[in-house]
Amino acid sequence: MFLGKLVKRFKTIKLSIKSKLILSLLSIAAILLVSSTISVLEYRSMSNYVSELIADDISSINVANRLSDMTNLYNLQILEAIGEEGADKLPDFDEDYFTSHCDSLRMSSSTNKIYPMADSVMYSYAAFMLTSRELEHVEAFSFLDTRDWYFNRLQPRFNRLTSDIDKLTDGIYKDLEKNSATFERGFYRSIIPGIVAVGVGLLLVLMLLFFVLAFYVNPLYRMLDGLNAYRSNDKKYTVRFEGDDQLVELNEGISELARENQQLRRRIREIRK
Q1: What is the DSSP letter of 234?
Q2: 0.85 surpassed by pTM
Q3: Is 149 left (phi over 0), alpha (psi -120 to 50) or beta?
Q4: Which of 120, 145, 179, 194 could be cross-linked to 39 through a Cys-Cys bond (beta carbons 3.0 to 4.6 Å apart)?
């Protein structure tokens, strides 16, 4: 219904064949440009999402490195405490920071592979901290007993914790590499084909416009000019162009009619004389 009214309205607009043809091809070009714009906007939306994932991965790597540094410092402080006489107090350690940020690493991950790694860190951390609290009781014994406690009980748990943190960091690095590769593939798969398609489409539109203007519209205008000259100035219809399609047949028919009409006019004038 609406389309029919639109067609009727379009027919009432007085446009030349050339204008209608150019308008139609420009409409096709506009559709191609709109499609390209939509493709670019979709890619921007996807790239923003992937960029956020990459930024989260980088932030998570920094947090994991911070947790590793905290653990190493705490372990060194315990070693210093063992070497000092009369030291019976545990070094300070921000347990709330460690647990909360480890949980944030688990929740901010874009892949399920990080979940068990973060859980392993939490388990190793709990075992390490529980064992480290034994220092207050171990210090009451001799230095050799304290060393034995550290190397046989605490250090294995420390090594397990640092190993789990390293695995977690490696997992986040792999997640970062995957998201970076996704971003790169998305660029070539979304933008490049779209730009090439639009470029080729516009080139085809221009070629089609040139072809139609050169082989159809311009000959029609030449035929119209020739007819106007024939009707207004009584000149011979001399329009000629090469080809083997219906337009050439139409021009030959017009030329024959114009020639016959001229002969008829000449005979009428001779009769009147």
Answers
A1: -
A2: no
A3: alpha
A4: 194
